[in-house]
Amino acid sequence: MEKYTIGSIFEAVEAGNKHSVAHLITQGEIEILNTRDKVLGHTPFIAAARNGDVDIMSVMYDRYGPPILEQTGLLGSTSFIDAAYKGDVAAMKAMFAKRKDLLTQKDNHGNTALHQAALWDRTEAVSQLCDWCAPLDVKNNNGQTPWDIGAQKPSIRKVMEKYKQQGGLHVNKLSFSKTREKSPLVVLAGGDKYEGEWVGGVFDGYGVLERPDGQKYEGQVKDNQYNGTGKLTDRSGFVYEGDFKDGRYHGKGKYTYANGSSYEDDWTENMYGGYGVESLADGSIYKGCFKGGKRNGEGVITWPDGGCYKGHFHEGKKHGWGKFSWPGGNSYEGEWKDGERHGKGTYTHANGSRYEGDWVEDKQEGYGIEKYSSGQTFKGYYKGNKKNGKGMCTWPDGKTYEGQFINDDIHGEGTYKWADGRLYKGQWAQNHMHGSGTYRWPDGRCHEGQYNEDKKHGWGKFSWPGCNSYEDGKQHGKGKYTDKEGVTREGIWECGQFKEWLTEKEPQEGHGSRPASPQPPNIKFTNIFEAVKAGDAQSVVRLLIEDMGILEKRNEFGYSPFLVAAEKGQVAVMEAMYEKQQSILQQSDKIGITAMDLAAINSQVAAIEFLLRCGGSELLDARSRLGMTSLMRAARYGHVDVLKVMFDTKGRDILVHQDNTGETALHEAAKRGHESAVRFLLEVGDASLLEIKDNLGETPWDEAKAKPEIRTLMQTYRTSAQGNIHGLESRESPQASLASIGLAQKVLDGFETILKIDSGESRARLAELVVDALKNVQDYLANLDEKKTKAAAKELFRKAMRPARDCILNLDPEFVVKKFLSIIDRANTRLQQLAATIDSKDLGHLNQMPVQLTLKARGKIEEAWQTSGEETLHHSLESLICLGIELARELLRAFDSEQRMCDRDEIKPVCGALVAKGLEVVREVAKQMNVPQEDLTEIVEYASTMPDMVAAWLPDVELWDADEADTKLKDVTEGM
Length: 976
Known about the structure:
ANK repeats: 661-685
InterPro entries: Ankyrin_rpt (IPR002110), Ankyrin_rpt-contain_sf (IPR036770), MORN (IPR003409)
Pfam families: Ank, Ank_2, MORN
Largest sheet: 29 strands, antiparallel
Helix content: 40-55%
Keywords: ANK repeat, Repeat
């Protein structure tokens, strides 16, 4: 069942859906009735009262009880006061029927329900409150009484005058004295009936009060309130019998609900607290401490079926240390949180099995030890009540397994030992030997190779005691047999049985062996693998001329000559092989390791660049049987130079690839402590990489828990991603500087709605960061050679545009249009300032990026057009120009106020360029969207007023020459 949300209860109340409300209360228990909306701080009951929905109010009251009438909103207004403010008499009656002391409730301003009804001209509500004897002379914080307020409103004054003339009580010709008198039955205003003792015109002594709604009180009264010992009942079936004070349950008492549930013991102002006994309709009984009407502290619950919980409670839920016993004999003893097993605890089954360890949200999760009644024991990690991660299992017959588990299955790398001495070490899949592994027998036999569901399958090497061995295949088909004397023969086997020899024994040296064959000239090596390792490309070519088939040979590790060349970085040899057979790029070993993988493992950058030149970029996406990419392998060994080459080729998408266990390149670098690799991955990616979870739920942050230096580095990026402006400083590298700019922009955008920081102060801080960052960038680029400068500029621009992509993916259409176009202008401003240090001809393709990104946003802009109409689109396109100029204006002011080193003359061309670029984007979007010509004309006319608008904004600052601005606008608008 889906867990409730705070929003869902308020949606159900607003829709008037009583059944949904009842379902949500059952699902979320009583805590959901204590939630509040985000605007006015109303609880669900107050929201229902404001809507006048008596049925929903009744559902909530039956579940929560009388204390729900004490709930208040942000201004201290109760549901009864809010109902009076709304003039909803039906809701008022429903609540007054439950509690008679609601007439004296006050909000934070000292207003009662009668104050609010009079203030808002709720005549019917005022009349009803007067019938209930609401006091006219209670003053609010401003010293006003309801009578003072009503005196200014004719209709309200008329009702109050009638009430006041009758002495404020509407009693039929009843005279009062200051001595205690006992009167016969008296009918009061509103139909109330009182029989009992009076003093000075108010109830005092013992009396019986009956309401028209069926509520009846018998007991002691004083000052018109229930005071002393008494009994209160109503038609719904609830009964309270005990002590009262000022109309509220206070002291010792017993409250019995209509469904039979009850609470008996201490009460404080309608809330039960202290020690008490609560009996529920389902037969369960709670004995223990209460606070604020909820179970808090030590207590014991027992159920009719024999179940029992003894321990701590908080806010009505099991919380802290406690023990739960089920009727069948199972039990849990340990830590609880919000009603769920959470922390350290022990679960014992009736059959004797036992789990002791970590719990998270009612599930076995973390490290634990489980002992079964059969004698089997497991020590290791759990997730979701199942073995997941590293662990060790021991059986009573002596068998053991130590390694990886997934969802209770032996899965991954591990070692299994039998009691008779047999051992298998290798890969597993769903409790079967599957993949590469080594199987050893006690007598010395050994098989090393591939397995499929517990059976030898594929390549393998079998050795016997005395050094006899068999390899190049399982014992089915052609293979080689080497005896203990080192003599090798080829033969054929079928289903493990020898059939025939294909060669005679080769004589050993010194026993009549034939002389070696003469070799062709200019060949140093006759073995292809030796030639590859030596980097002898000439010998490799000669050998290929004789036999192209040697490209498919494999060495003892299952590597082909091309794979060995990539491993050793022998680029000349790789080129020679590639010229002969281009498909060689796709070669891999038995478990899917490619040439790119081997080059990455051994940091052979030249070999990687060769593979990429030959069109091998798809090898960066290739995966081994374990799901690993070459980038992950480079990260595993901390080869930053390799990571850079691969990232420049494939971009950010390659960073989020996950292997079969769910791990990314950052997981690999983090858990092995490669600080430089972690730093690079976070710089070219972002802090979201830290939150990617593997199959066991562990993030790179989790993997680095034993490496404080990696944690410190990660915390730097994690803090930045959280948008804390006080932690921002200019960085030493241009990449970090641009990251600061983007981050500062995000912080600025969220200030007014989240951080509540003054916008002017925020913009000044943003200006400081922009200036410092750009100065850093320019200083950095000045010290680089031309090639590095171009590369740096590309990287900086890519980072500057990333916030635009985020807006496209995550924000609503109308906001995307405004913010996206504004970000484009800001990025272009940065690019233009960088252009001062870079040859402009090299930036031509970069200047097209804003248009490309604009086209990507086309879908969102079209959505805004379709859902919001022409006015929204016009406003959005106009915002492109307005926001760009506004940015320049705010930066200029911030520069001046902080006395930054930035001349106004530097801003003038920027503003002019913003207008021109803005109109270019408007034209491009309009063309793609087929905007009607008349609409486009209107936009262009609006844009042409930009210089006048700027002059109105900044009368004391001339941002650009008028003639220059007119020329720029004319050049652009003529094309539209």
